[in-house]
Amino acid sequence: MPRKLPKDSDSFRKELISHLTEDNAHAGFDAAVKDFPTDLRGARPHELPHSAYQLVEHLRIAQWDIVEYALNPKHESPDFPDGYWPKSPEPPNDKAWNQSIASFRSDRKKLVVALEKSDVLAPIKHANNQSLANKTILLIDHNSYHLGQLILLRRILHIWPEK
Is residue 133 classed exposed, middle or buried when 0-12, 13-18 and 19+ CB atoms within 10 A define those classes? Predict the structure, then answer.
């Protein structure tokens, strides 16, 4: 039986924010990038299609695009798919890795602030009348998929903490 949405929008809003910011059914972004060894950020073992850096950058770019699309009527998305993936599997330096993570967190916070201040179910005219809830669910789904890839990569590299 499908799960019913909370009747009160505050609890729905809190649930959206929780799925963005906390570890719920699986590890979240912060756990997935925590203590990632510098020398393995560009590794692509077993001919996997993406390195950790490519996944982190893709998560950052896609999240930025979805957030800006929802909040900024003048936003223009990058070209698909090339504009959503870095070309190199390796970060140019530690600063690029750290900046990617910081930008992801900053854009996530920007979305959380917007969720806290808005009617999450109201149609957004410049976003094809989709709601902020719709765009947030899209983002949660997208992030979950690629975080799973990042955690699998960590397991293959033997750098995922087993509990």
Answer: buried
Q: What does the chain come to in residues?
A: 163
Cα angle 126-59-120, degrees, rounded to a multiple of 5: 40
Domain ranges of the chain: 33-156
**In 3-state terms, what secondary structure has residue 38?**
helix
Gap between the Cα atoms of 28 and 159, Å rounded: 16
Q: Where are the alpha helices (DSSP H) in the chain?
A: 9-21, 29-33, 52-71, 94-117, 132-156
Please indicate, yes or no, whether the overall pTM of this predicted structure exceeds 0.85.
yes
pLDDT tens readout for residues 28-87? 999 999 999 999 999 999 889 999 999 999 999 999 999 999 999 999 999 999 999 999
